[in-house]
Write a structure and sequence with these properties.
This protein is mainly α. It has 2 domains: 17-82; 84-138, no CATH class. 76% of the residues lie in helices and 0% in strands. It has 3 helices and no strands. The longest helix is centred in the middle third of the chain and has 63 residues, at 17-79. The protein is rod-shaped. The two termini are 29 Å apart.
């Protein structure tokens, strides 16, 4: 024997189909809003960490540039002791440009492997919610 569902706090009153559909609609809307808020929060957190990381790398890169410039000047002056100054500068410049080309190729390769900043947990949650609403919930 089946018993109609009763809302909490109202014993003896049966819930109508219309009321159940209304609740389903309200709860589905709330669930969607909650999932959207989760996606926004997750994305904002990822972006914040990314921006902070980029700023740190920017400062480190600038300081490293100053250090490398000093080392390059030292290399040119050192080679100038045994070669003409113009040839010393040319050799050091060619070596630096070759290193830059290698770094650019490695950077291009790595950029091809970058994943998106999509809110993966929120997307999975929405997929599970849709599956549940369709009646095919599988854990």
């Amino acid at each position: 024997m089946s018993h109609p569902q009763q809302p909490a706090g109202q014993p003896g009153e049966a819930t109508s189909t219309g009321e159940l559909i209304s609740r389903l609609s309200d709860q589905s809307s709330q669930l969607i809003r909650d999932e959207i808020r989760l996606a926004q929060a997750e994305t904002a957190q990822k972006v914040k960490h990314g921006v902070t990381g980029i700023a740190g790398f920017g400062v480190a890169g600038l300081l490293a540039l100053y250090g490398v410039l000093g080392l390059l000047a030292t290399a040119v002056l050192g080679l100038a002791e045994v070669l003409p100054a113009w040839l010393s500068a040319l050799i050091v410049s060619v070596v630096v440009l070759a290193a830059a080309a290698v770094a650019a190729l490695l950077g291009k390769k790595e950029m091809g492997e970058v994943g998106g900043v999509a809110p993966t947990r929120a997307v999975e949650g929405v997929k599970q919610d849709v599956d549940t609403l369709k009646g095919g919930h599988h854990e």
